[in-house]
Design a protein that fits this description.
The chain is an all-alpha fold. 60% of the residues lie in helices and 3% in strands. It has two domains: 5-289, Fic-like fold (Orthogonal Bundle), CATH 1.10.3290.10; 292-395, Arc Repressor Mutant, subunit A. It has helices spanning 15-36, 42-59, 66-73, 81-103, 106-113, 116-127, 166-178, 183-200, 207-221, 231-236, 239-248, 265-289, 292-310, 319-328, 334-341, 345-357, 379-382, 388-395; strands spanning 154-155, 158-159, 361-363, 370-372. The protein has a two-stranded antiparallel ribbon. The longest helix is centred in the C-terminal third of the chain and has 25 residues, at 265-289.
Amino acid sequence: MYTQPHQFEPLLPADARLEPLLAKAHDLSRLATTLAGTRVPPELRSLLRSMNSYYTNRIEGEHTRPHEIDQALRQDFSKNAALAAKQRLAVAHIEAEEVLEQRYSGAEGARALYTAQAVQDLHRELFGRLPATDLLTTENEPIVPGQLRQRDVKVGQHVAPAHASVPQFLARWADFYGHVRRGEATLVALAAAHQRLGWVHPFVDGNGRVMRLHTHTLLSALGYTGGLWSPLRGFARSTERYYALLADADVPRRGDLDGRGNLSEQALVAWIDYVLDTCLDQVNFMASMLDFETMKARIEACLVFEATVQKSGVRQEALRALHYLFLSGEEMSRGDFKAMLGMSDRGATDALGALVKRGLLKADTPQGKVRFGLPQHALRFLFPRLWPEAEADAATL
């Protein structure tokens, strides 16, 4: 059983194998930084939090349907106890993600994430939101939020470090990765840190969720996401590969040509390459979705469907005002919005009311300012293929 921190070396590939990864990380850094500065309606970031929650739980095989997450956010939980527990877990992830992004922000926050205390904080922030009845493993063992495991474990073929050695492994993990400061090198490091944190397996349960929360929060702190993308979507859309590469990087070195550490360097390189490719794919996809040249046509298609097929009372004359709200990412008084419709006051009032009812406009109070809304049923028009499961779910309701 592993008891000494040198036993999970290498923590990064040797320089000869690092260069291609750094080149890919450079491309990711450049593209992600540009995307992160894009101004978007706040409702998009809220939707993406729900999507992240859906996908991280789907990786664990415990996902809910998208509309069930939406219901849970409105405190409408299922009467089915098992489903309600999954809904609570989904909401806990959404809330924890937002809190953690605020707590760990900027360069200082990124450095703080590479501490054992931060890893425990992530676990506590997620699981501390759940009632005691939900805090049980599949073997009915209690899950204590933030507590490092108190027993030895085996995960698949991997025998994790002795529980008494977990603090030592975490200290080495934090010290090494926390001192990788150079731009693109931080992206290579966070990919490796994800895998090595899983190798340590610090908690009795919830390790995968904490690993993904750590990577997501770190990307945010480094200024690469702006709340507009996450690798969680990519991991969930390639779950078998995600798990296979994670497990492969657990194995011992395969001969003299496989690095100098105790574990396989080739497998670690393959894992890092996968993470960088996944991030690049998500950044490029989201950049295409935020193409403002085509957004107006997508909003128009949604309005046409609402007016002619749904007959919801939504008017096509709302196109210019909705497009403006999307581009500005800001709120607007109801009076200003109605003025942009070019309709009679009564007609404009009815049209605005229909937009609010269908979720295409959002407001915090009945007479408050309005902002661009993004209901799940409109995703197939506004952001096609972003969250296919939500599109399919909305079509059946």
